[in-house]
Write a structure and sequence with these properties.
It comes from Serinibacter arcticus. This is DUF559 domain-containing protein. The model is unreliable at 180-184 (pLDDT under 50). The chain folds into two domains: 7-127, no CATH class; 136-236, Endonuclease, Chain A (3-Layer(aba) Sandwich), CATH 3.40.960. 46% of the residues lie in helices and 20% in strands. The radius of gyration is 21 Å and the shape is elongated. The protein has a four-stranded mixed β-sheet. The protein has helices at residues 10-17, 40-45, 69-79, 82-94, 99-108, 115-124, 132-143, 188-207, 217-221, 223-236, and strands at residues 7-8, 28-32, 46-50, 58-61, 64-67, 150-157, 160-168, 173-177, 211-215. It has ten helices and nine strands. The protein has 239 residues and is an alpha/beta fold. Helix 2 links the parallel strand 2 (28-32) and strand 3 (46-50).
C-alpha cells in the first residue's frame, strides 16, 4: 500500500469491512500522514487523523484503502464507549481478526489515549456470538459487575439439545434475544407452528431448571434498566 495518500479508518473502516457499528454514518474518518486544509463544513463531514499507519496495517477493500481489521478494532475500541466497543470487537473477531495481531497492536500503543479502555473491551470480546444484540447484553452485564456469561451455551432437555444465546451456567439463568423479526411475513399456519415450537422449547428449558429472560431491542437500548434486570436475574433468578 506504499504511496497511499490516506486510508479510511476507525468506524468508517469498520463499516466498510462489515463490522457491527452501533451508530454508523457521518463523520467519515480518514487517517493520513500529511496535513490538509479543510473548511468548517468539511470538518463536520470528514474527520482527518494525522498519523503514520504502517503498510502492514493497511488493506485494499472494494478498491479503497482501509486500515486492517485488527487495527480498526483497536482504534475503535480505544474511542468508543465500552458497549459499542465490545459489539464492534465481537464482530471483528467473527470476521477473522487475528487476536494475536490485536494484542501486538495494543502492546505497541501502550500509554496512548484510550488503549486501556480498548484492552478491557477486547478482553471481553468473543467470536462466539450470533448478533449485535447478544454482544450488547453481554457488555451491559459485564459493566454491571456480573460474572462473564457463556455465549451460545447448549443445554440438554427432554426435547433434545437447545442453544441459549447467553447463559450463566452455574446460576442456570439465561438471556434470549427476541426473535419476533423472524416471524414477520409468515403465514398463519407457519406462525402458529413457530410460536408453538417456541413455547415448547421454553417449557423444556424450564423443566431442565433454567430461568429465561427474553430481551427485545428496545430493552437492549435502555442500558441502565437492562443492567438492573440482569442483576435481578443472575443474583436472584428473578425475571
Amino acid at each position: 500500500m506504499a504511496g497511499a495518500r490516506f486510508a479510511f479508518s476507525r468506524t468508517t473502516a469498520a463499516t466498510l469491512l462489515g463490522c457491527w457499528v452501533l451508530r454508523p454514518g457521518l463523520p467519515v474518518h480518514v487517517t493520513q500522514e500529511t496535513r490538509s486544509s479543510t473548511s468548517a463544513e468539511d470538518r463536520r463531514l470528514v474527520v482527518r487523523h494525522r498519523q503514520h499507519v504502517p503498510d502492514r496495517d493497511l488493506r485494499v477493500h472494494d478498491d479503497v484503502v482501509v486500515t486492517s481489521i485488527e487495527r480498526t478494532v483497536v482504534e475503535c475500541a480505544a474511542t468508543l464507549p465500552f458497549t459499542a466497543a465490545v459489539v464492534l470487537a465481537d464482530s471483528g473477531l467473527r470476521l477473522g481478526a487475528d487476536r494475536a495481531v490485536i494484542e501486538d497492536l495494543l502492546a505497541s500503543l501502550a500509554g496512548h489515549r484510550g488503549i486501556r479502555n480498548a484492552r478491557a473491551a477486547i478482553e471481553a470480546a468473543t467470536s462466539v456470538v450470533h448478533s449485535p444484540g447478544e454482544s450488547m447484553v453481554r457488555a451491559v452485564a459485564l459493566r454491571a459487575g456480573l460474572p462473564a456469561p457463556t455465549p451460545l451455551h447448549v443445554v440438554d432437555t427432554d426435547l433434545g439439545p437447545q442453544e441459549l444465546d447467553i447463559a450463566w451456567v452455574h446460576e442456570r439463568v439465561a438471556v434470549e434475544m427476541d426473535g419476533a423479526v423472524k416471524l414477520v411475513g409468515l403465514g398463519e399456519a407457519d406462525l402458529t407452528r413457530r410460536l408453538h415450537a417456541a413455547m415448547e422449547r421454553h417449557d423444556a428449558l424450564t423443566r431442565a431448571g433454567w430461568v429465561i429472560l427474553r430481551v427485545t431491542w428496545a430493552m437492549v437500548l435502555r442500558e441502565a434498566e437492562l443492567a438492573r434486570r440482569l442483576t435481578r436475574l443472575v443474583r436472584h433468578r428473578l425475571v
